[in-house]
Amino acid sequence: MKSDIQIAQEAKLEPIGKVANRLGIPEDELELYGRYKAKLSDSYLSSLKDRPDGKLILVTAINPTPAGEGKTTVSVGLGEAFGKLGKKAVVALREPSLGPCFGIKGGAAGGGYAQVVPMEDLNLHFTGDFHAVTSANNLLAALLDNHIQQGNELGIDPRQVVWKRCMDMNDRVLRNVVVGLGAKADGMVREDHFVITVASEIMAILCLADDVRDLKERLSRIVVAYTFDGRPVTAGDLNAVGAMAALLKDALKPNLVQTLEHTPAIVHGGPFANIAHGCNSVRATRAALKMADYVVTEAGFGADLGAEKFFDIKCRMAGLKPDAAVLVATVRALKYNGGMDRKDLSREDLDALKRGIANLGKHMENLHKYGVPIVVALNAFASDTAAETEYVKAFCEAHDCAFAVSRVWEQGGEGGIELAQTVLRTLEEKPSRFHVLYEQERPIKEKIDTVAREIYGADGAEYAPAALRQIQKLEELGFDKLPVCMAKTQYSLSDDPALLGRPKGFSINVREVYVSAGAGFVVALTGAVMTMPGLPKSPAAYRIDVKEDGTITGLF
User: Fold this and answer.
1) Which of 131, 145, 184, 407 is 20–30 Å from 115 (CA)?
2) DSSP one-letter string for 333-397
3) What are the pLDDT digits (tens) for 290-337?
């Protein structure tokens, strides 16, 4: 069996100008990054505004397990299947972070014969967007510390610096550091912190900004610290916005690539859904909707994280109205949720499946709460039995969800035709009545409690004393009328990764609350979730290499 990278390296790619031409994009509106990658120009994006929108299809999933779900693979394969059916479709995805590529997860270009290519470029440096975000983030950090060193005219309290440095790598030792050691000229000694680039507020801003003007306005609102008398200090106060925007001006432009079957793919932005809002950029999604009749987009991790934030943050802010949701599951993952040992997942076990399918059921209930019609895509494995597949199908249909089997990993677009036809039928027969879960004007604790109860199935939220003080301060400063972005483990509906299936009788433990004023939401950190991941005992980096001819091996 060929690996994903072997399949990708054997593919015959089309020049990106030919892919663009399929969408009617003039070649002089492309900013080329080699033969197979390009950015869409600002002038072209502006020219799209009066076109009608296509249908917006969100792909989400059950909670991720070591058994695998294949959400990106299904997203890519669904786009390819639309192409097989003669439909004009675009896939709109996030960019991969280097952290997971060298850590535990692997790449984020899909898999098998449902991949976005060039896969190695996409999973590594791509067009430099992540580097631009990292540079802008750390420029702001440098300007902040320099301001304190050079007289501190704003009266910043060094004990209340909240802006963190970032890097696009998993590096646990940088979570808590001390800076400024050495001579007086080396800066003030203080505790500092790093987050992974995808958790930077600048990544969220990049993904939510409408244009350069909106980008600069959002950057100016970033709260970096507080003064000795408790007033917020912003990036605008530090005169940092112009230089940051200069670093980000090209990163703001969406990237155009292709799938293995030459379906156009717009890949742009990359916030994680467990610690950020987990969706690709508003600019990319809006552009795709103007260019195609069907847009397949993806939200990170399970529907309790990515889909909730897609609906309650991205769609709310951008005025998007999704037409359908595809909920990805596998028999193997459902049996794992039912308590089956990982090494036994290839064996038929209907009892484990019946226990574990409660996780799928909860996600189906959650999506129904947003008024969006649902198609469950069962990502097929060779070990699935007819009885297991039939049980999942019957369960879905009993819960008012359409059902289709996806075989896109093995067959590409051809293996997704059943799913594509089911989605098309759902779009025709079930109109979306999309609405958000809560009104953002409600108090912070009430919004957190709503997500905890309605989406996670918790009895409510419990708050650490520090979190309660932080909420009170945000309310006093007028930051309470914003949506909430919940940072939570992706492995469970609860904040405890060991609680699989559909746990009950638990509370969500909120340990920290802060504002991302530029992005436009309040972040609540729950449980033990980290904004700077660490590497596993045997990281994927051990298996990645490059041959003398430049061919990369071992990457996913």
Assistant:
1) 131
2) HHHHHTT--GGGTTS--HHHHHHHHHHHHHHHHHHHTTT--EEEEEE--TT--HHHHHHHHHHHH
3) 999 999 999 999 999 999 999 999 999 999 999 999 999 999 999 999
